[in-house]
Amino acid sequence: MAAIVFGMLAAAAVVTFALRRAYPARDFHELVLRTRSWWWMAAILFGVLALNARLLLLLFGLLSFWALKEYVTLLRTRAVDHRALIWSFLAIPIQYYWIAAGAFVMFLIFIPVYMFLWLPVRLVLARDPAGFVMSASQIQWGLMAFVFGLSHLAYLSRMRPLPAATADGITLVLFLLFVTEMSDIFQYVWGKLIGRTKIFPTISPNKTWEGLLGGIATTMALSLAVRFLTPFSAVETLAAALLLTVAGFCGGAVMSAIKRDLGAKDFGTLIPGHGGMLDRVDSLCYAAPVFFHYVRYFHG
Amino acid sequence: MSGIFTARLRALVQILFFVFVIRPFVTLFIGLRVQGKEMLPARDPFVLIANHSSHLDTVSLLSLFPLRRLPRIRPCAAADTWERTRWIAFLSRTLFNTLAIARRNITAQTHPVRRMHEALARGESLILFPEGTRGNGETMASFRPGIAHLIEEAPDIPVVPAYLTNMARSLPKGEWVPVPFICAVRLGRPLLVAGTRDEILKTLERAVLELKENV
Predict the structure, then answer these.
(1) What is the value of ipTM here, to two decimals?
(2) Which of A55, A57, A76 shows the shortest CA–CA distance to A65?
(3) 3-state secondary structure of B77
């Protein structure tokens, strides 16, 4: 798998080089930055896998931490939310502990049941009703998307090898990441090339029907090439790719709406050319839980 | 601080503390964004001034410096807070190299401006929060006159303005556990300020506020 990814990155480098030679007047700075960041992200992922697959939990935990951090920074929080916010960050190590311990039910209910019941109580203890609903809902949404949603990547990585297949949790995570990121990239590429009809310009001016459909088609075709990572039949692979693309698209759209509402273009500056961590993992927040349950339903 | 606990040992402890605790904390937990790091003068002494709203302010500003410069960087800390017990005084001097400033019971010997001049004369740079206390992080209080007094008598010392954002959101007054909001520090061009005390005060206040407005 590493060979495929780095091969594609090398191909991207060749294409970028050719584009710069062909159109010396045009500015490819962002493209160069974006591809360079992809090298880094791929190197970190495969480096962690080569070192010790259990470290993936730490990597995904840091992903949740940084995403939640970028999200709450943009929020209009109140001073009295301080303690509730501390609790929402404490939920990250607890949630990943359930995963490390293999406590499946706690992994599923800790955030939607216990944290969701506790956070409003902690806000009540701050004794300020003005803005209560706003604070409670925005903090809970952050936990849902960036801790609960993203942590499905980690639980998926710990799935046992499936009978009669070469696939295990790690290869399924690679499939999920590869397909979701390819769909992001090709929706962007098709949108730039032939994008005309905007889907919801008030939310995101870059999302077009041409981009979405082109992205779906390309991603489905590419997914067949990495079917060896999964226990799926060809039809199941295509369906998974469709599901991941649509879920990822929805995740990206929701995060765009959040940025629009909070008046920011990007969530941060962590990943050059991409923006913040959240600008890269937005689609995964949706794709990961949906894919997790797809796998469990058909091959659980 | 005498006997075995020499200045060199103190500096070593501070550097280890910064390598293993403060630097990782500022990079990974606070996620400090720095703009204009090149504005920091390469040579001591100078005075770094900033708005003040959190204990994280000092930590963040100190983390901007290369480790070997730390022994010559003195954050000015209120004696009534940071020297209120012998242990607190020991820890803040050892780990942060603080210069204690008296806010009450001032005598000629403990006069804040005098202590700062002595430090500058030794070639040490100062980190100062001219508001005199931590604010709410939204509005900056007007500067106390001490800074003007200091600069009036040391007009050849460059003053570097800095503006810190989100520090009070992360760790406001009265809280002890920080929330990891992304914080930022913005540094301005070093200034050589002259004039009457009033003029100096206004110039410095404006220099810090300009950095806020340009964010």
Answers:
(1) 0.90
(2) A57
(3) strand
Q: How many CA atoms lie within 13 A of B97 on its CB side?
A: 29
CA distances for A275 relative to A5, A9, A288, B5, angstroms? 22, 19, 21, 47
Torsion, CA B103, CA B105, CA B111, CA B112, rounded to 10 = -10
Residue to substitute from A69, A139, A278, interface B, most B β-carbons within 10 A: A69
- Long-range pairs of B87-95 with CB within 8 A, sequence gap ≥ 24: B90/B1, B93/B1, B93/B10, B94/B1, B94/B10, B94/B13, B94/B14, B95/B13, B95/B14, B95/B17
CA distance B46 to B51: 17
pTM: 0.92
Whether A133 shows a pLDDT value over 80: the answer reads yes
Nearest CA in chain B to A84: B179
State what percent of residues in chain A have pLDDT above 90.
71
Distance CA A73, CA B128 (A): 27
Provide, for chain B, the percentages of residues in helix, strand and coil under a 3-state DSSP scheme, each rounded to the nearest 5: 45, 15, 40
| Residue where the block lists tokens 């109580």 | A121
SS3 B183: coil
Radius of gyration of chain B (CA): 16
- Name the DSSP letter for residue B132: S
Q: Extract the tokens encoding A122.
A: 């902690």
Residues of B in contact with A85 (CB under 8 A): 179
Amino acid at A48: V
- Over residues A157-183, mean pLDDT: 87
CA separation (Å) from A290 to A35, A91, A234, B131, B163?
A: 28, 21, 19, 52, 44
**Which residue of chain A comes nearest to B169, CA vs CA?**
A79
CB contact under 8 A, B180 and A77: no
